[in-house]
Design brief:
heterodimer, A: about 400 residues, alpha/beta, Rossmann fold, 5-stranded mixed β-sheet, 13 helices, about 20% strand, B: about 190 residues, 6 helices
């Protein structure tokens, strides 16, 4: 497969993927906090490069509502959002998942207000972690592009039928130009294939009810079925990744393990900071420190067994959260990783680091601070403090 | 990372610091290098001090942190020096400064208050007025930058600038040609100590 080498920003990469996917409907609210993704995509629409029905709506709530309507009618539907835009969608985000609609939505991760902030953190998508959407996280522009294309196949898989968020770090990835390799249009077209919905509200010969009332007698069954879809989704996510790897040579799993196999200390991290941390791992390795890294790609469904199997041999592990849960205990990723580790019986000592809120820079020295803390815990065998913050003035 | 070159661009909103940072990266990418380029985002407004960054390397770049110790500093707006922004912050002793000004490198060195490193100057505004007809210093500064650092061949920069600006200014070839001439002129006119 001949792929084009390009220098491209995260927003451009996602918009390009959307152009190549050529969805039937894109509904978007075209002002702040919308992203350049929709702006770039709208030029594809204006220039006749896609067949998409582009619906400019009056709010993010309506953007998701229109996507739900379009997907219910059997369209391949997409929207894009960020930060408070996702927060305004909230009600309908849950409905998209409950109705089992395979909508794909890039989420440019930015801080929720207040105070007002436009920069990167994960509070938006982490807040939506229990909405029933699959979540794929991207380290760089390449992964944002690749995740978008895979997301369509995952969402529409007959055994999955769930919406997918493709997360990329605001500004750090969305507005940064990086090297990437992109596929020819026709190859993406063939990979995603034609969308054949299982059911549509427009099929009068096979009528279905969408968005019904379900009270005490049936709501629970709907939710149980939704839960089962998420439980069953993992192998299909991996199948799509395998097929994509054959096409591109780029392999994706539920997570990426970096120098983890023989590591004694390690961190779990999502998004762009994983790339920064790889530099620190390399530096520590050169000094003889057995450091490793696990970058979570699929946060929903949460790969509990796979994670604990990959991490259980570590003496000490730090889970990095770019969002705070304000629960006086830990950030969201820590809580779940810790639960998975406990279930597996691992003896690893665990700590949590909250970092980078509101776009606070995460330098190599910040990551090194975390590893140094881990080295002390590995040596002493004792956790001095579970909840930690790095890069903040206190 | 060995062989990693980091450039920090200082300018004011509207002078094209971001465009220059991205253009340099794109040209370097086409020349087979690994790159990263990004602006520092704030409440953007015309005239406010802004920064942008370019990373260039022979190896893949995975770090996503700020550029804090740039080897090369490009100043699009000379009156930022001595003002609210310290353009010398974090720059190593062998740092290289390329400044848009009609002053000499010696005069700028005194203003910067540095004893080490290298200082180059070029009157990018004058060049931009002569070639583009507007006081936009970013493309001439690119020409000056590649002359003093040798990071790129001028032909590959010209080719890339043409490609990128032709997209941005479709149907206005005089703007594209003006920018290319600005690069060529600054490449010739940049002065060292």
């Amino acid at each position: 497969m001949v792929q084009e080498k390009v220098a491209i920003t995260g927003n451009e990469a996602v918009a390009l993927a959307m152009k190549q996917i050529n969805p039937d409907v894109v509904a978007a609210y075209p002002i702040t906090p919308q992203t350049e993704i929709v702006q770039i995509f709208s030029t594809y629409v204006s220039n006749g490069l896609v067949d998409t029905e582009f619906v400019t709506v009056e709010s993010e709530h309506s953007a998701m509502s229109a996507s739900v309507g379009a997907a219910s009618a059997g369209a391949r539907a997409m929207t894009a959002t960020s930060a408070n835009g996702l927060a305004l969608m909230w009600e309908v985000v849950y409905i998209a998942a409950s109705n089992r609609l395979p909508i794909v939505m890039p989420v440019v991760n930015r801080a929720l207000s207040g105070p007002i902030n436009i920069h990167c953190d994960h509070s938006d998508a982490m807040g939506a972690r229990d909405s029933g959407w699959i979540q794929l996280w991207s380290e760089n522009t390449q992964e944002a592009y690749d995740n978008m294309i895979q997301a369509v196949r995952i969402a529409e898989h007959p055994e999955v039928q769930l919406p997918v968020m493709v997360c990329l770090d605001g500004f750090i990835i969305s507005h940064a130009m990086e090297n990437a390799q992109v596929l020819p249009d026709e190859v993406v077209k063939e990979f995603v294939g034609e969308y054949v919905p299982q059911k549509t509200i427009l099929d009068k010969d096979n009528p279905v009810t969408a968005g019904p009332v379900a009270f005490t007698d049936s709501y629970f069954e709907f939710k149980r079925a939704q839960s089962e879809a998420m439980i069953q989704a993992k192998p299909y996510i991996l199948d799509v990744a395998k097929e994509y790897a054959k096409l591109t040579g780029r392999e994706y799993g539920l997570f990426e393990a970096y120098k983890l196999e023989d590591a004694e200390i390690g961190i779990v991290v999502l998004g762009s900071t994983a790339g920064t941390a790889k530099n620190v791992v390399d530096k520590l390795r050169a000094q003889g420190v057995k450091a490793g890294l696990l970058k979570l790609r699929v946060f929903r469904p949460f790969p509990a067994e796979e994670l604990s199997a990959a991490l259980g041999h570590l003496k000490a592990l730090a889970v990095m959260d770019r969002a705070d849960s304000f629960n006086a205990f830990s950030g969201p990723v820590y809580a779940e990783v810790a639960a998975a580790m406990y279930d597996s019986g691992a003896q690893t000592k665990l700590i949590n680091y909250i970092y980078g809120l509101g776009g606070r820079d995460v330098g190599l020295e910040d990551v090194e601070t975390v590893y140094n803390h881990l080295a002390r815990i590995a040596e002493s065998g004792k956790v001095d403090q579970r909840l930690n913050y790095v890069g903040v003035r206190e | 990372m060995e062989g990693l070159l980091e450039v920090r661009w200082h300018g004011r909103g509207g002078q094209g610091a971001k465009t220059a940072a991205l253009l340099l990266a794109e040209s370097a990418s086409d020349a087979g290098k690994f790159i990263q380029a990004f602006p520092e985002y704030g409440p953007e407004r015309m005239g406010a001090p802004v920064q942008a960054f370019t990373r260039i390397s022979d190896e893949p770049i995975t770090m996503h942190c700020h550029v804090t110790n740039p080897k090369i500093v490009v100043v699009l707006e000379p009156n930022l020096i001595g003002g609210p922004v310290d353009v010398t912050a974090g720059v190593p002793e062998d740092g290289v400064y390329v400044i848009n000004t009609d002053a000499t490198p010696q005069e700028m060195r005194a203003k910067l208050g540095i004893k080490t490193g290298k200082v180059f100057t070029v009157d990018a505004i004058k060049i931009a007025m002569e070639t583009i007809g507007r006081p936009i210093p970013n493309t001439p500064m690119l020409g000056a930058l590649i002359k003093v650092t040798g990071i790129l061949e001028i032909e590959s920069l010209l080719e890339d600038t043409k490609k990128r600006l032709s997209k941005k200014f479709a149907g206005r070839p005089e703007i594209v040609e003006g920018n290319l001439n600005a690069i060529r002129k600054a490449y010739q006119e940049v002065k060292g100590e």
